Amino acid sequence: MSGVAVRLENVHKAYEKGGATIRVLTDCNLELAAGEAVSIVGPSGCGKSTFLHLLGMLDRPGSGRILFDDKDIAAMRESGRDRLRNRHVGFVFQAHHLLPEHSAIDNVAIPARLAGCSAAVARGRAEALLKAMGLGKRISHRPGELSGGEQQRVAIARAMVMGPGLVLADEPTGNLDPATSDGVFERMMDMVNQLGSTLVVVTHSLELAGRFSRRLRLNDGHFEEVTV
């Protein structure tokens, strides 16, 4: 799978909290072309992370359809969703979530091992990605021996190890200083472009969002195109 086309049709998502209903997405419709890169902005609590969880099959909508290349992932059984997520969706979070007791190469290899790849194949992919991320001399280092920017580059390599058709990034450079942030962002974009993946980046940074040709704002449960 290279990039996947994503379509939301009348998606609704709400939570119950303290006896009140909190509506996050309301009859939401959206189309992303295969290989498209888009940024999403909006105030805290508006549902940006919830939207990523729905796309990443970590949660299900209350109603409506979410389609990957015309396959309704919301209607799939959990086992099928797990397989699809592992093989075709890459996650990059603000916190890198690396396993501290494992080396960089072993952290990156984890999704491939979970997908059934042999240790040799998984580590071969991981090493190639780490070298592409400029970490060829750091592959045996554990997270505690790496800088914040290096740790996030390891996390990006891990997200890419299965060649995902969809990459979901939630504040991918939010914990980094501006100079380091720029370098990490450029590495991530290079990798996404090489794979031809569809990319969705959620961010509070208007500067980062402005680097995308398509920008969306999540407002009152709906997406709005940002043209300025």
Question: Can you describe what's shown?
Answer:
This protein is α/β, with parallel strands linked by helices and 228 residues long. It has a domain at 6-99 and 163-226: P-loop containing nucleotide triphosphate hydrolases (Rossmann fold). It has helices spanning 48-55, 78-88, 104-114, 119-132, 148-160, 178-195, 206-209, and strands at 6-17, 20-32, 37-41, 63-68, 71-72, 89-92, 166-170, 198-202, 214-219, 222-226. Strands 6-7-8-3-9-10 form a six-stranded mixed sheet. Strand 4 and strand 5 (71-72) form a beta hairpin. Helix 3 crosses helix 4, helix 3 (104-114) runs parallel beside helix 5 and helix 5 packs parallel to helix 6 (178-195). The two termini are 33 Å apart.
